[in-house]
Amino acid sequence: MHTENKDEMRDKILEAALKRFTHYGAGKTTMNEIADDLHCSKASLYYYFPDKKAMHLAVLEKIAEAYFAEMEKVTTNITSAAAALHNIIDVKKGFISKFCRLEIFKIQKDGPSVFQEGVKRAKQIEIGLTTEVIKAGVASGEFKVDNPAQTADLLVQSLVGLRFSVPDHFSNDEELDEETFELVIEKQKLLVDFFIKGMKG
């Protein structure tokens, strides 16, 4: 391992952490377990990350990069803007289902300001991508929208709102159970259909 550069070792640590977090949950994973998986000392991990929370944040950043890369694929070479809006929901569902043990909402509540800023940036990226989809729909004649950016902002904010309003009981650090999660997705798709009908009118 001594022949690896710092970036390669950091990536290996994040991959090992992600594997542990997705299988056992971030809260139940220890630095010792990650070190054992990599056959290195715990001190080696602390060389790259000051604590587990910093590692957790780095893992979430890695997932966010992959998530938005998938979102960009959906918004490239659009043949149907309506289908693209539904595909965005499907991408989101796939990532949340796959990485549900990362305890995103817990760290969103307790995490440092840098994470809060990351959440804001992520929402702005999603609004931007949704804007491009709506613009493509307008350009093709599929949609009739005077202000795509404003419509995209309202749509994304409304979709986020359903995440918090659908559950009967909710706290910011609480992950949704499977049944409630599916209900949220179902309502999000209905909301997208509602917007699509309005934009086509």
What would you note in describing this structure?
The chain is mainly α and 201 residues long. It is built from 9 helices and no strands. Helix 4 packs antiparallel against helix 5 (81-98), helix 5 (81-98) runs antiparallel to helix 7 (113-140) and helix 7 crosses helix 8. The chain is elongated and about 60 Å long. The model has no long low-confidence stretch (mean pLDDT 87).
SS-based structural class? Answer: mainly alpha
Compressed to H and E, one letter per element, the order equals HHHHHHHHH
* Relative helix content: over 70%
> How much is the radius of gyration in Å?
19 Å
End-to-end separation in angstroms reads: 61 Å
Biggest sheet features: none
State the shape: elongated
Number of helices: 9
- Mean pLDDT comes to 87
Q: Beta-strand percentage? A: under 5%
Q: Which regions are unreliable across 5 or more consecutive residues at pLDDT < 50?
A: none
The tally of beta strands, per DSSP, is: 0
Could you give a short description of this structure?
With 201 residues, this protein is mostly helical. 75% of the residues lie in helices and 0% in strands.
